[in-house]
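User: Hey, quick favor. My workstation is busy. Could you predict this chain's structure for me?
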Amino acid sequence: SGDGLDWTVVDSGATEFLYGVAGTGEGRVAVGGGGIILTSIGGAPWSLQRTALHRTLNAVAAGSSGFVAVGNAGTILRSTDAGQSWTSISSGVGDDLNGVAIVGDSVFITGDSGAALRSTDRGLTFNPMVFSSDTMRGVCAVREGSGDITVWAGGDDQVWKSIDGGDTWSAIAM
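Assistant: No problem, here it is.
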């Protein structure tokens, strides 16, 4: 429902677990095991796709320039057409990627063994961010007013924060 109070179960047709979902005004994307991608445009029923890589996709994020999905073995996929087609983007890492967040032209990705990546060109290229050797399970980013982007990354027992778009990081006391 529009208010989030009532929910309806919808058969997605997926036979694998789903791990992430994101949406824009144009459509919705869900990702999961075995490289499955489900898309729904404009409220239409879900359509099932499989990536050629067949790698588990752990998270997906939506932004004004489209969707970015991340997964095992350093997988990054990008779609600019509401999830209908996907392009593989080099991550430069072999670790599993677990979280992705998009703010404006910036994309932030976190993963296993301290894998952390940032793009400032809408996910076309990525560069490493270094702040921890821990596995990071998720990432969240927001633009504070008209200023810098604040980014949070969470791991097994630690939360990290950057107030300058990922240039510098500090551990948050728990």
